[in-house]
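Hi there,

I know you've been waiting on this one. I reran it after we fixed the sequence typo, so this is the corrected version. Both the input and the resulting structure follow.
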Amino acid sequence: MRSLRKTVLLAILVSVVLVLALLHSWPTRAYTTVDVWQRPGAVLERHLEDRLPEPDHRLGNIPFHVRDSVASLLARNRCVCEGESGGVNLPFAQLLFPRVSAHPLHTAFEASELEEMKRRRAKEYKSFQERSQTPADVLIVAEANNPLQYPTQGVEVRPLKTVIIPGLALHDLPRDYYSINISATLGTLNVAAEVDGVNIKGDGEMHMTLSGSLLPNLNRQLQFVTYTNTLFHPSTADTVQFETEGHQASFSIKIRHGVTPKLYNTGSKGEYNVSALVTIATKTFLRYDKLQDLIDSVRKYYPTVTIVIADDSENPKTISGPYIEHYIMPFGKGWFAGRNLAVSQVTTKYVLWVDDDFIFTANTKLEKLVDVLERTTLDLVRDGPFVLIDCDGGGVAVTHVSVCVCVCVQVGGAVREATGYTATYRQTISIESGEEDGDCLHMRRGFHHIIQGFPNCVVTDGVINFFLARTDKVQQVGFDPRLTRVAHLEFFIDGLGSLHVGSCDDVIVNHATKIKLPWVSQSESNKAYAKFRYPPASSEATHTKNGLLFFKNRFQCLTHN
């Protein structure tokens, strides 16, 4: 009986603890109160002065009084790795009264390598900033000419955070009394400090009025106007109305999270370590002989570069070896689905996309392409020209034939004489706005301009199936898996506006022949491959491609040469 009583009491105790934990963690719409009084006013005042973009020396001697409750909300561009200390050391204490813990991440490295890791990270971050920031992010203040002065671009706030609105002022408007109205729609307005002689009405609301008889004091007060985002939408902008009697202006404040960098440890300084920087990705279907030729040619020049293979063959064969990752897909899953799979497994900074019938040569210098991406803002650069090989002496029809050459190519360990053609494939892509029927997609051969410092490289929009690219950018654009066997430029169409594409003609790769000679019998695998790869123009694959361009991309017409 006593044992039963103890069991019941223990069950009741555990139930009470669990109920308390549930009540403590149950989400509610009301936010908990946050202590914002952690730093003295003097620090806030200095910080506030630092936040003024270019303080007007004519206003510097006008006193102000910091509003700690507002100024403490401003970002300080510094973070401290500190957790909460103390607390009660009782059973279930962390469950009932959870404390914030902090984990310094630099402890992942030995002290002897930490400084080197910091140096590499700083180098990568600088490159990331150069690529991700544009002139549209720079703060520009419209000098008073109407006579309102306000920022025309470059003001940004994190969701639900506070920022000082820089550049607000009123000039050359002689009056006995001045009044400024400021209105927002996705946040509230306030002042981080109060200036004597200025009346403030509506602070903490979406509409605020500042007024006074002294224009210098009013302008001083405008330097402390803050904006707090109150409606959570992490990728939008608030249009702020700024007006005085007879004059008005509008400007936008971007509301968005900061871009989280995705940096790659590229190894110690010195020459480019291609194995640490590049992963080769390919998609194969039935053509294991050509895939093996590709692998053999890669290993001759880059023995430790990882090769990722996506394979949707019906009866897949085992492809193994050092630095090879072979992923099996459902039969006939498709070309772009395989691209997605292969690229999703890449962990290096760059991915080199190759078809399974390409062949590396001594002129396939990946270091040159890495150098272009490391020193420019390009996201993707194409190897080229490529050499179309015909080891049977036949002709090969290509789009852009530039030079007829005689080469020796090693295939499967045997050196064979071959004739071929170097071809350069570059496409510019543009979209012309239409009306209700949709837009027009225009594709033309050519490029936009030569890249300064790289005379053999140009900027274009679409390139061939042999390119080196930033892995995160390729993953960001992705490949539409509905495009199964006939697709390529659709990737660049989807990436137009986000992919910065280049093409260089001093890195050459070989391509196996596609010609069908009547006296050479084809293998069963080649026949099966051709059936999938080259469907008739009226096939379902062609209809699918056109349908996606029409509906997904909202195009009514495609023009090309």
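Quick highlight: The chain is about 25% helix and 30% strand.

Best,
R. S.
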